[in-house]
Amino acid sequence: MASSTLDFLPTTRREMEQRGWNQADVIILSADAYIDHPSFGAAVIGRLLEDEGLRVAIIPQPDWHGDLRDFSRLGRPRLWFGIAPGCMDSMVNKYTAARRLRSEDTYSPDGRHDLRPEYPTIVYTQAVRKLYPDVPVVLGGIEASLRRLTHFDYWQQRLRPSILIDSGADTILYGMGEQPTLELTRRSLAAIESFHPALAYDDEGNAMLTSEALKDAINGGLPDAHGDMSQPMRQCVTLHNSLKEIPGGVTEDDIILHSYEQCLKEPRHHAENFKHIETQSNNDQARRLIQQTADNWVVVNPPYPPMTTEQLDHSFDLPYTRLPHPRYEGKRIPAYEMIRFSVCLHRGCFGGCAFCTISAHQGKHIMSRSKGSILKEVEAISHLPGFKGNLSDLGGPSANMYMMHGKNVDICRRCHRPSCIHPNICKNLYGDHRPLLEIYRAVDALPYIKRSFIGSGVRYDLLLHDWHDEELNRAAADYTRQLILHHVSGRLKVAPEHTSDHVLQLMRKPSFRLFYDFKRRFDKINSEQGLRQQIIPYFISSHPGCRSEDMAELAVETKLLDFHLEQVQDFTPTPMTTATTMWATGYDPDTLQPVFVARTPEEKRKQRMFFFWYKTEERRNIETELQHIGRPDLLRKLFGEGHSSKINTTKEKRHKEQQKKRHK
User: Fold this and answer.
1) 237, 352: one domain
2) Which residues of 148-179 are buried (b: 16+ CB within 10 A; e: fewer)?
3) Which of 459, 489, 519 represents a domain boundary (last residue)?
4) What integer is the mean pLDDT of 631-635?
């Protein structure tokens, strides 16, 4: 632990007084334990604002029961309360795909479940509103970002409106928050400096921001002297009582989505909406999105451009202690244990996987740190207590996308594709693995580093692709070899996700034949070097479009590969993904064609059991299901001959007819 609480943002009144403060400018309410590390959003925003000269305090995991005294223990902030609901959606963090309680809360001390409410964004905002009705409340983080418009809530099994409406907050800063937070701070201070008429004042005559003043600042209501602040702020969500109140009025450039009420009546409308939402989330020339909910209008302003390397370096180079706050002395925080000796090299992912929220929150454009910034962080890690020379991960959302970009930026600016590599790898993508190899080798050359491992997922389709460039192909081959020989701790995890082409198409993942190609390379390199390393594939069951026979075929494929699967999961619908939209509506938002969905617990159980075909307790259930759907071929492949006589030939004939119709 760090030697003093003065090394951290203050969390108590006493810690504020030690700094000579009687009031904070911004108070962050965090649903996670306070870990001063660049992987934890509350710490990033706190350090960023501190660097701007603001007095920032943080209340980690306030008690939301009873008299709410935790929410008032630091008093009223001069500018605003920031709600940081956690590094994961609170419901994903708490419940499994089967809606069962997880064994622990990985972001809480000792994994305790009782320190975080469900939907902390809503709970914390409502608590603050009771205590300080006129103080601005700003939402950020995964939970609010991905619930900024009408979304499907898997845990309540219904469509819900924007969380801005449910919470009563003033605005959402969606996506990665550095750029909008800096702009919001600039506008907040400008509102105070201009003596905005809605300001509040304390007993000593010091000006304090109010919700009304903040909304004016966001919507461009500041005096002209503030220049570009006369225009609405980017990358934020605001709420308005009528179309007339929307800054600049509704124009032909705006996209008017189907209303929340229309989506409730007709699920297809929600699928149509999502196509617009996904497209505009990752468009350099994004348009404003507007959606009505009852008498309110939710407005999503376009995002900022991707952060530059200099901007990203600045965020990662802030003076983090990289440690939990001293209040957790002697306690175990599982999430911290997983990442304390890891380094994030970049943000964003252009994979566009249908079930993933990364591009919805971080964006699809890769934002990479400089070599200098990365090496500086590695050195800082080397001084941490308990470090023994091994880095657990040199990675990112997808490990091997570092520094990759479009050859022609103008083409990227006009592009509406959600993925740069599906259904095929874009010809404009410059997939150079050399910058990443340079990072790996520079880190491994440091005298205090024994090994650096790659714990993040690797996109093997980028390694196998013919780039029509000898140097890029050689770099991909060199990367593959370097990865396998020097950065695998005996087991390399990759994510084919499924084996069925039509399911993979809906997932936006490459054909499973590429996994075979990669495994052959993996096995060949290991054999040449006398290594006995394993490749561990991840798979998903119950993804939209997947049926029992697809899972049975997956079982056959993995049996042929001699895999007894470990890394498997049942599909969990999370807000703001293509797959969740399919699950909720029964339509593929890309094509608006109907999609089969296994929704009931029994349907999901039947799919999941095929992962474990090798277990005696599952064999009878699998036999029964394959008999039911008329697939003697799969039964024989899984368990050998002697089963075909048990299959109802009428069902088999019916199945073949259905297959012919599907192919037509």
Assistant:
1) no
2) bbbbbbbbeeebbbbbbbbbbbbbbbbbbbbb
3) 489
4) 89
